[in-house]
Design a protein that fits this description.
The complex is a heterodimer of chains A (286) and B (266). Chain A is an all-alpha fold. In chain A, 78% of the residues lie in helices and 0% in strands. Chain A has helices spanning 3-11, 22-45, 52-59, 61-94, 97-112, 115-126, 131-138, 152-176, 180-188, 193-221, 225-230, 238-247, 252-277, 279-284. The model of chain A is unreliable at 280-286 (pLDDT under 50). Chain B has 266 residues and is mainly α. Chain B is built from twelve helices and no strands. Chain B is globular and about 70 Å long. The chains are: A mainly alpha (286), B mainly alpha (266). The interface between A and B is large, with 103 and 96 residues.
Chain lengths: 286, 266
């Protein structure tokens, strides 16, 4: 090996300055920022320059219903997810490690299982002649099958199922960081369990609940697959509408405008979440 | 007291009962789909009237399923390699670099994780239509790498933050070149982060549906697209068989991860 080549290897280094960011920035710049900006541009130029696409979206009752429905579903999903996740995270934070690792295993298995697989399972479970309806009829609880799919109930069940891990896992961290002494002190001072929960445990875990809840809400707003398969036509959500505008109606102008509205709302809520938890923790939790 | 497991009293029973219900809820679809795939009823009756392997036979007899799975595996592997390589370079800069706007750049690189996928999907679809990259493997890999990058950067950057740089400096003082020090000291130390990054970015591509639906062409479709289009036509048990294999794959990945973590940590 020549001296020059040796020197070349000796000075070869993994850059620690801006240089190392170049490949990532080129990828994100060229294949993320540029296409998204081009889409935004299209929303005000297609079919003709102007804001008519936005006017059409915001001025029409059908679209207004989709917007309302999107927020409604996201809100219902978030509330149910928080209510279900909190007791589980609470137990996970304090239960013996052996038991906790089993539960963590179940959560990771459900989270890592293919999204379509999980949704397919719910489609089969919830359909009119599905297992749940048959079991309920068999047990004599109901006479007629319940409408569990292609409506708000179906979307809520399917979405809560997907969102639960995203709420439980960060909440466990929040709850573990609370010093059990504070609650012992409350009990010693005569606080009832309810008072201790309401005045100590809940307020101390509120930052985690708010951050996780906001994340679930934001993720639900833009969700496509599960609402498309478990929801009905009467409660279509925004993401599905955007996909339809592009794929079936080939209305790029309207679709891009709707996409841009979704983008702005999502980013605004995301910025709010960053302020709540600080930039590092917000993204580190995933 | 509320955070003392052994002193919760009746509340513990109630909370544990609820937790057990949620665990059952989380397991239900996964277990159900596996049982269903062995059931003999074409109309997905449950409990099944009998047990059979015919849905698996149908699955393996259909070349379009096999081809879709191979396409997915190919794209996901390329995505994982590309995402980890780019994320590794980016993480050194993000964690150790001293330049203005570092936090903003970090935020920018993580944005694909928070932007609704459907927005990115139609944007990249339109973009690739113009470039002629729609429906191509390279197009899929690029789009999936954009989506996977945050999931690769987070574990690597976190591992790098936890690594004491003075060990690397010590190696250099002892005569190693900066590159040698990184390759032989730093990279092995953050291998758990790198390994997690590889798994997460592989899964990010392997499971990706929305971009894939737009990008897929009649000649190139990934496994999720194949499942998606089958789902839209009917709920055939063949999907249950394919799904069960995916569950088996997930379980395999989980076990490998757990074993490797244990091995790497000791």
């Amino acid at each position: 090996m020549s001296v020059q080549a040796q020197q070349g290897i000796a000075t070869l280094r993994i850059p620690e300055g801006l240089g190392g960011l170049l490949p990532a920035l080129i990828l994100i710049g060229l294949f993320f920022v540029v296409p998204v900006l081009a889409l935004l541009l299209r929303s005000v130029t297609d079919p003709a320059p102007g804001l008519q696409n936005y006017a059409a979206l915001l001025g029409d009752g059908t679209y207004a219903r989709v917007f309302f429905n999107t927020f409604l579903v996201a809100a219902v999903v978030t509330i149910v997810t928080v209510l279900v996740a909190f007791p589980v995270a609470w137990m996970l934070a304090i239960m013996p490690p052996a038991l906790a690792s089993i539960l963590f295993g179940i959560i990771i298995l459900s989270m890592w299982t293919n999204l379509l697989t999980r949704t397919y399972a719910w489609m089969v479970l919830l359909q009119r002649t599905g297992v749940i309806n048959r079991a309920l009829i068999g047990a004599g609880i109901i006479d007629q099958p319940l409408p569990l799919i292609n409506n708000l109930t179906g979307v809520t069940i399917g979405m809560v199922y997907i969102m639960l891990p995203f709420m439980i896992l960060p909440l466990v961290g929040t709850l573990r960081a609370i010093d059990p002494m504070t609650l012992r002190a409350a009990a010693l001072c005569g606080a009832s369990p309810l008072a201790a929960f309401r005045r100590i445990l809940l307020p101390l875990s509120l930052p985690g609940i708010a951050a996780g809840g906001l994340m679930v809400f934001v993720m639900s707003l833009g969700y496509f697959v599960t609402p498309a398969l478990l929801g009905g036509t009467s409660n279509m959500m925004l993401a599905e509408m955007i996909a339809q505008m592009i794929q079936s109606m080939l209305n790029w102008g309207l679709g891009s405008a709707a996409a841009f509205i979704l983008l702005v709302v999502t980013m605004a809520l995301y910025a709010l979440q960053l302020r709540l938890v600080g930039s590092k923790r917000a993204v580190g939790g995933a | 007291m509320l955070l003392d497991y052994d002193r919760l009293g009746w509340l513990k029973v109630a909370l544990l009962g609820f937790t057990a219900l949620v665990a059952a809820f989380l397991l239900l679809p996964v277990v159900f789909i596996v049982l269903l795939s062995f059931g003999s009823s074409r109309w997905l009756a449950f409990p099944p009237p009998g047990w059979t392997l015919k849905w698996y036979q149908e699955l393996f007899a259909d070349p379009s399923w096999i081809e879709a799975a191979l396409t997915s595996a190919r794209i996901a592997t390329m995505t994982a390699i590309l995402a980890v390589a780019i994320a590794l370079l980016a993480s050194f800069a993000l964690v150790r670099g001293q330049f203005r706007g570092r936090e903003i750049l970090r935020g920018l690189l993580l944005t694909p994780m928070v932007l609704p996928v459907v927005v990115f999907a139609i944007a990249i679809y339109a973009f690739f239509l113009q470039l002629g990259l729609g429906g191509t493997t390279i197009g899929f890999v690029i789009a999936h790498t954009v989506l996977a990058l945050p999931f690769a950067i987070i574990p690597i950057a976190t591992a790098l933050e936890g690594f004491d740089k003075s060990i690397e400096d010590a190696a250099i003082v002892c005569g190693a070149s900066p590159l040698q020090a990184k390759l032989r000291i730093t990279l092995p130390s953050i291998r758990i982060g790198i390994f997690s990054a590889a798994i997460f970015s592989f899964l990010a591509s392997w499971d990706e549906v929305v971009v894939a639906i737009f990008m897929a062409s009649p000649t190139l479709q990934t496994l999720p697209v194949k499942i998606w289009s089958s789902l839209r036509s009917d709920l055939t048990p063949v999907i249950a068989a394919a799904s069960s294999l995916l569950v088996a794959l997930t379980l395999g990945l989980m076990i490998v991860t757990a074993l490797l973590r244990r091995k790497l940590q000791t």
